[in-house]
Amino acid sequence: MSRGRLAIALIGLVLLVGGLAWGTAGSYGFGHYHALYGRIVARDSVPDRSATNAVSVTTFDYRGFDTLGEEFILFVSVAGVIVLLRRMRGESGRDESLLAEEDRRASESSRWLGLALVGPLLVLTVYIVAHGQLTPGGGFQGGVILMSAVAFVAVGGESVVLLRLRRASSGVELAESAGAAGFAMIGFGGLVATGTFFENFIAKGTSGLLTGGFIPLANIAVGLEVAGGLLVVISELFDQRFTRERS
Amino acid sequence: MSVYPYLVAAWLLGVGLYGVMSSRNYIHLIICLTVVQASTYVLLLSVGYVSHGKAPIFADIPTSSVTVDPVVQALTLTDVVVEATVVALLLALVVQANKRFKTVDPNAMTRMRD
């Protein structure tokens, strides 16, 4: 680092350390947290929403409005990636021979492991999304697992799957948009049915998978959006690897 | 009262920021940024910890049990997802920067400004 940058960094660092010390001085000691909000949420999840996963209840129900904002961060980031990685002037299309060569380099073991894990990962995705309101899991986690299933196939020397994904990109983007819109619609459903945005307006049920009111629906919508968004990102970044400048 | 979890968070913030400041490679810089983000996970989760509290999942514990705070856990979940997509966006920027300037060194790029 140059001297000027070091000086600027030191000023920032002093301000940061001071601000942090000032900001955390009066906070709870480790293990002594006793804010009321979290306790009420944890206590009410089961009797109020028939859902045992208090984190899911917080994310999608009590604080559903905040999650909507976060959904849109995800949506805009993915749109940003698509715009940034669009084909530029002077760039030729994908070089398919490079792709075939890349696939040949995958070892036998990664090939087998990649393909063997796809089925279990798909089942795990459905399980994690469907049980989001009961046990740890939900749409965010399920979407990421689905994306990793596709990544495993690609690493296992079948990157042609990403090529197909790219050809079907309008479908994947549609799934992503449908997920984002679906989650917003769930919020509007509450507005229409009860007059409050993101009020849980569906019957809460008593036991099993159909509990928690709209939380399972929200999990499916978010799962669609996260999986769609990440698949778009992975196929766009992958495409860059095989895009060459026109010579 | 233990302060170690907070010290871990501060340490992660410190090393991450040092990495960001001294980085000579944008990809390295982005990884350092994820280290900074990791400090927020540690901080959030340790703030919400309650001594001997269980996870706020009532599938197999009685509803009267003492649990850790579910709100900060939901915040952490949000944090992780936002981080993943922001990293993807930053990496896309690096790809384009590399195409235009043929380098991923932040210092070299300021010299090549046109």
Would you give an account of this structure?
The complex is a heterodimer of chains A (247) and B (114). Chain A has one domain. Chain A has ten helices and two strands. The mean pLDDT of chain A is 85. Chain A has 247 residues and is mainly α. Helices cover 71% and strands 3% of the residues of chain A. Chain A has helices at residues 3-24, 36-49, 54-62, 64-84, 96-104, 108-130, 139-155, 160-167, 169-194, 215-241; strands at residues 91-94, 243-245. Chain A has a two-stranded antiparallel sheet with strand order 1-2. Chain A is globular. Chain B is mainly alpha-helical. Chain B has a single domain, classed as Helix Hairpins (Orthogonal Bundle). Chain B contains four helices and no strands. Chain B has helices at residues 4-22, 26-47, 70-101, 106-111. Chain B is elongated. Chain B starts with a helix and ends with a helix. The mean pLDDT of chain B is 87. At the A-B interface, helix 1, helix 2, helix 3, helix 4 and helix 10 of A face helix 1 and helix 3 of B.
Quick recap:
The complex is a heterodimer of chains A (247) and B (114). Chain A is an all-alpha fold. Chain A has ten helices and two strands, in the order H-H-H-H-E-H-H-H-H-H-H-E.
Beta-sheet strand percentage of chain A?
under 5%
Query: Largest interface, by Cβ-Cβ below 8 angstroms: which chains and how many residues each?
Result: A-B, 57 and 46 residues
**Outline of chain B:** elongated
Question: Count of helices of chain B?
Answer: 4
Tally of distinct domains of chain A: 1
Oligomer: heterodimer
CATH architecture of chain B: Orthogonal Bundle
Order of helices and strands of chain A: HHHHEHHHHHHE
Helix-strand string of chain B: HHHH
Question: Characteristics of this structure?
Answer:
heterodimer, A: 247 residues, mainly alpha, two-stranded antiparallel ribbon, B: 114 residues, Helix Hairpins, 4 helices, 69% helix, 0% strand, elongated
Any chance you could write out the topology, listing elements then pairs?
The complex is a heterodimer of chains A (247) and B (114).
Chain A: H1 3-24, H2 36-49, H3 54-62, H4 64-84, E1 91-94, H5 96-104, H6 108-130, H7 139-155, H8 160-167, H9 169-194, H10 215-241, E2 243-245
Antiparallel strand pairs in A: 1-2
Helix pairs in contact in A: 2-3, 3-4, 4-9, 4-10, 6-7, 7-10, 8-10, 9-10
Chain B: H1 4-22, H2 26-47, H3 70-101, H4 106-111
Helix pairs in contact in B: 1-2, 2-3
